[in-house]
Amino acid sequence: MRAFIARRQRVGLVSREAPLISNLSVLENIALIGQYHGRLSRRRAEAMAREYLQRLGLEELADRRNPSLQEEQRFSVMVLRAAMLEDSVLALDRPFEMMPALGESRFIYETIGKVAETRRECHVFDYFLNERRYRRGSAHEA
Amino acid sequence: MKLKVEHKVGIFIIATVLLALAGLAYMAYKKGVFQAETTYVVSSRTGDGLSVGMPLYFSGFKIGKVKELELSEEGLVMIRISIPDNHAKWIRSDSKFLLEKPLIGAARLTVATKNMMSAPLSPQTAAVLTEVNDINDAIQRVQPILDQLAAITENVAALTNRLADPQGEMTKILKHSEKLTASLSARDSLLEMALGDRKSVRDFHASLRNTRQITDQVIVLLRKTDEDVYGKDGVLPMVVKALRELAANLVKTGATLDNVVKITSDAADSTKDLKLLRSDIDSAANSLNRLLDELNRKMPFRTEPRIELP
Amino acid sequence: MIYSDMLYFVENIGGKGLQSALSFKDAMSFSYLILARLFDRRAYNSAVSMVLLNQIYFTAVQILPLFLTAAICLSIAFVGIIGEYLLSIGLFSLFGPLLVNFMIAEIAPFATVLLIALRSSSAINAEIAVMKVNKELNTLEVFQIDIINYLFLPRVIAGIVSVVLLTCLFAVVIVVCGLIYSGFFFNMSARDYIATLLESAGFFDLIAMTVKSAVFGFFIVMIPIRHGTRATDELTSIPVAVRHGMVNVFIAIVIIEVLSLVVTPMISKLI
Prior knowledge:
The structure holds three protein chains of three kinds.
Chain A: H1 2-7, E1 11-14, H2 26-37, H3 42-55, H4 71-83, E2 89-93, H5 95-98, H6 106-115, E3 122-125
Parallel strand pairs in A: 1-2, 2-3
Helix pairs in contact in A: 2-3, 2-4, 4-6
Chain B: H1 5-30, E1 37-44, E2 55-58, E3 61-71, E4 77-84, E5 96-101, E6 108-112, E7 126-133, H2 134-164, H3 169-186, H4 190-195, H5 198-230, H6 235-267, H7 272-298
Helix pairs in contact in B: 6-7
Chain C: H1 2-38, H2 46-61, H3 64-88, H4 95-133, H5 136-142, H6 147-185, H7 190-200, H8 203-228, H9 237-270
Helix pairs in contact in C: 1-6, 1-8, 2-6, 3-4, 3-6, 4-6, 4-7, 4-8, 4-9, 6-8, 8-9
């Protein structure tokens, strides 16, 4: 995976190794990427982030912080944050480790489907022993 | 209404910066930063004691400061003094620039103007700096005192030499004092010192004791005499009593004689001798009475006669 | 035996000395890195401004009630002590110079930096250490967000701005408290008081005070940040990082104070 990240210019990573910033709210965490890389104004970036949250029906989480989120909520927010990175590929690092209670991959695909725009690449990295959990196809499919 | 973080921070920054700037502006205004300045040039033979930033005083007030010091082609030190325009009126063509070098402390640049009506000094004209050196003045004034001090020191040296001389008067005096104190410490008392030897002191004490004994005896004797003379059965009361009785008897004799004169007047006219006798007796009685009074006056009778010794 | 002990002792001192020198060099190169970014326009964006804004709020605005109370108490106490003492020894003419050169130029920055260090340096140190332990610094790296630009730069700027502004505020409090105190207790008119202060105050003193405050502000934030990033992945490394950071902050404060006392008169003479 590291080699994959190194090869790409921009990778929107969703991983336990890249947690949400705990002293920022969910909205600020998502907006940060737009503010920093898109050089957007705070208001603009936050509006965009709010729109993304609405897309997942998570707008009520906007002002909450990382520790108060449930595992699925945290995962969704992290996907949203990764999606804010323009012209990037989405990379999911062991999503089942982030959500141990999750039985199968439908939630993951649904979330990515709602967030990722068309033609966006998405890569999921996981152990082979979790392969059966991704029923809809290979681990490299969007 | 709850203020947003942005507003709070904005208010804080603006308020503090405004406060600081207002303070600075006020200070700058009061210090005359915004005032136009005129630069005057003053020349001096030496730059000793002068420095850039040195204040210029007029009547004890700071009116300007030294802006620049430079050496001219002629080797003179050109002092450029900047003075705010509101103080420039004190600088006149007859103003004297002085560099005061006090005995203690840093040099001080002052300007003195006698005639305020004279023309203002042109910034192009170089005035001359006069040096007022307190140190040199003080040395000149102190010189005569120092000379006198030298003479005094010489005298003191001569005196100490004489004192230190082993053959000098002081050494002699000291030796005599030593002898005197030595003999004083050898005697028991001042009396011995005065009389010279111990035997005389002992005799003196013995005679003192005798005198005391004699005095005691005299006191006893006097008490007894007092008792004998003035006591109830003493001599004097008895004498007085006898004399009173004698006087009374003489008066009675006088009366009897009067009767004899009366009886015998018819019988004998020539009794002149008897009258003579009578007057003699009278004068005798009178003189006795006078004696008695005299005695009484001189030795008054007391109920408890006492003799008091001093 | 004694020889080997002595050798060990010397080695120990040498090791400590080298360690301190290296640490100092690190701190200086880190300072240079941050200073260089300070003047790089590309380092700024709305995210950095947001952090800067929040940091100024936490460092300077939130502390205001406590700060003003402390400033008023300290000012009244110092003005009172100085004034009464000068009166008792018959040197009241030094009241103005002492108020300006001691209270405003020395006490105001020193007391301010102590208060800010107590409250904010420790907080920043702990915050960075926690971010390190939580792998949040890793997140920033993954999303190609420059840690120095996003985390350190706004905090350092906030430190400088806060200490400078609060020092100015402290100076204003000293002037006002001095005015009230001298009016009540020394029967000094406001006009005389201001004249005395103006006579003693120079622009250089105020500039020196501001520069000193800025240097204080820079170091009392830079040092905790540097020590915060030294935390490991273990939670127990947080208190260790905070302790080292705070000790170094106080050493830095003392060194800067002493240096300022030595350097300021020298520069003043040069000017």
